[in-house]
UniProtKB/TrEMBL annotation:
Protein name, per record: Dihydrofolate synthase/folylpolyglutamate synthase
Every Mur ligase central domain range: 61-209
Keyword flag Magnesium: yes
InterPro entries: Folylpolyglutamate_synth, Folylpolyglutamate_synth_CS, Mur-like_cat_sf, Mur_ligase_C, Mur_ligase_C_dom_sf, Mur_ligase_cen
Location of the Mur ligase C-terminal domain: 315-433
EC number: 6.3.2.12, 6.3.2.17
EC top class, as a word: ligase
Keyword Magnesium: yes
Substrates-to-products reaction catalysed: (6S)-5,6,7,8-tetrahydrofolyl-(gamma-L-Glu)(n) + L-glutamate + ATP = (6S)-5,6,7,8-tetrahydrofolyl-(gamma-L-Glu)(n+1) + ADP + phosphate + H(+); 10-formyltetrahydrofolyl-(gamma-L-Glu)(n) + L-glutamate + ATP = 10-formyltetrahydrofolyl-(gamma-L-Glu)(n+1) + ADP + phosphate + H(+); (6R)-5,10-methylenetetrahydrofolyl-(gamma-L-Glu)(n) + L-glutamate + ATP = (6R)-5,10-methylenetetrahydrofolyl-(gamma-L-Glu)(n+1) + ADP + phosphate + H(+); 7,8-dihydropteroate + L-glutamate + ATP = 7,8-dihydrofolate + ADP + phosphate + H(+)
Organism for this UniProt entry: Ancylobacter koreensis
Pathway the protein takes part in: Cofactor biosynthesis; tetrahydrofolate biosynthesis; 7,8-dihydrofolate from 2-amino-4-hydroxy-6-hydroxymethyl-7,8-dihydropteridine diphosphate and 4-aminobenzoate: step 2/2; Cofactor biosynthesis; tetrahydrofolylpolyglutamate biosynthesis
UniProt entry keywords in alphabetical sequence: ATP-binding, Folate biosynthesis, Ligase, Magnesium, Metal-binding, Nucleotide-binding
Function, in words: Functions in two distinct reactions of the de novo folate biosynthetic pathway. Catalyzes the addition of a glutamate residue to dihydropteroate (7,8-dihydropteroate or H2Pte) to form dihydrofolate (7,8-dihydrofolate monoglutamate or H2Pte-Glu). Also catalyzes successive additions of L-glutamate to tetrahydrofolate or 10-formyltetrahydrofolate or 5,10-methylenetetrahydrofolate, leading to folylpolyglutamate derivatives.
Length: 449
């Protein structure tokens, strides 16, 4: 979860907007970017007149990996059915506006500035984290703009996350749980699952993606105490690929759908989770909307093949450039599996360009690429982030038998590919950090819409 207002922005500040002045003030309200608690949220929401009580029906989504993709699938299906959909996600990649989608459209600067200013005034200068006060502003907007449903993604954890102020959502959704953010959520999968399960509400149905056994045990115990009916992938419902199609089945019947547009075997699970959540929500959606949603869903920087742009032009002719913001062990496994699938269909040498934050487990992220990638070029993460040293990333790659080097940035890494021509031209994956992904999208002019 990103608390920073401008991942991917230029460090010189040449593209500053009026709203950035508010961001600067809000960042100064608390000494920490992350301080998990709900007390400050409840205080501010009361002063704002409790916008969280005036929202359209909510589907609340927590988990470690796949939250954004699951939300993207649900949004695509709902919009294909003609529903007006609010969406709240984090972090953003290039501009903060990406976090707030009002009835299908990213919030504009004028409306965003107004909501942030009202939240700032109501807060009265008291300590509050950036994510908390911006979430309060988002809830204010969601309460004021008409919509049929709100897809609300947790920022970090669940139990003490700023989004966990909705008393009775339609459905709670928990994507697969794995190790990440151990400084805040716990060092074991079971501890982390306990935090994620904190979004469960009494009597509210919950839909789970495929979970590790220890995570599932924790979630099931809490759900039983709350009387929250569970629909668990692999038990109450199934999602799998068959004959190039997506099949989802539960007690309501079987759906035979187009394979999801998003790339990778892991997206079968994300799409199945999204479909089951919408079926459990019982919104009366036509079958055609599910079909169109699978074809239409988009989610930037999740195995995204970059189109033409200034950055892609730096690569030698014929090189495929892919981008993913994955940065933990489960993310590395999912990306590597997807690239292995691509390799089976169209064989090309794989070159990794990787930049990571220093608090991530680089070894666990890179392990799945052993034997799959030919080369790794380590780069720093742009901006004022505590990035892992490129030399350290290169050393880990060498331990797995990869040729490894460093470059000052992604453009230089792409330029360097010309010095070692291969036939066929390589497939390049840029990965390791959402901050890095945001900078890549900005530099290539591939702004999320």
């Amino acid at each position: 979860m990103s608390a920073l207002p401008a991942a991917g922005s230029d460090p010189a500040g040449e593209n500053r907007r009026p709203v950035d002045d508010i961001f600067d003030r809000l960042l100064a309200l608390h000494p920490k970017l992350i301080d998990l608690s709900l007390e400050r949220m409840w205080r501010l929401l009361e002063r704002l007149g409790h916008p969280e009580r005036r929202l359209p029906p909510v589907i609340h989504v927590a988990g470690t990996n796949g939250k954004g993709s699951t939300v993207a699938f649900m949004r695509a299906v709902l919009e294909a059915a003609g529903r007006r959909v609010h969406v709240y996600t984090s972090p953003h990649l290039v501009r903060f506006n990406e976090r707030i989608r009002l009835a299908g459209t990213l919030v504009d600067d004028a409306r965003l500035t107004d909501a942030l200013a009202r939240a700032e005034e109501a807060n009265g200068g008291e300590p509050i984290t950036f994510f908390e006060i911006t979430t309060a502003a988002a809830l204010l907007l969601f309460s004021e703009v008409p919509a049929d449903i709100l897809l609300l993604e947790v920022g970090l954890g669940g139990r003490l996350d700023a989004t966990n102020v909705v008393e009775k959502p339609l459905v709670s959704v928990i994507t697969p749980v794995s190790i990440d953010h151990v400084d805040f959520l716990g060092e074991t999968v079971a501890e982390i699952a306990g935090e994620k399960a904190g979004i469960l509400k009494r009597g509210v149905p919950a839909v789970l993606g495929r979970q590790p056994r220890e995570a599932l045990a924790v979630i099931e115990r809490l759900a039983a105490r709350l009387g929250a009916p569970l629909s668990i992938m692999g038990e109450q419902y199934q999602a799998y690929e068959e004959g190039g199609r997506l099949v989802v089945s539960d007690e309501a019947g079987l759906m035979d759908l187009p394979r999801p547009r998003l790339v990778g075997p892991h997206q079968i699970g994300n799409a199945g989770l999204a479909i089951e959540a919408l079926r459990v929500a019982d919104l009366g959606l036509p079958a055609a909307a599910f079909e169109e949603g699978m074809r239409a869903a988009q989610w930037p920087a999740r195995l995204q093949r970059l189109g033409p742009g200034p950055l892609v032009a730096r690569a030698p002719e014929g090189v495929d450039v892919w981008l993913d913001g994955g940065h933990n062990a489960a993310g590395g496994q999912a990306i590597a599996a997807a690239l292995a699938d691509l390799e089976d269909r169209v064989s090309r040498p794989l070159v990794l360009i990787v930049g990571m934050l220093g608090n991530k487990d680089a070894d666990a992220f890179l392990t799945p690429f052993a034997g799959l990638a030919r080369e790794l070029i380590a780069v720093p993460v742009p901006g004022e982030h505590k990035g892992a040293a490129p030399e350290a990333l290169a050393a880990i790659a060498r331990a797995y038998g990869l040729d490894a080097s460093t470059a000052p940035d992604v453009p230089a890494a792409l330029d360097g590919l010309s010095a070692f021509p291969v036939d066929p031209p390589p497939r390049v994956l840029i990965a390791g950090s959402l901050y890095l992904a945001g900078a890549v999208l900005a530099e290539n002019g591939s702004l999320p819409e």
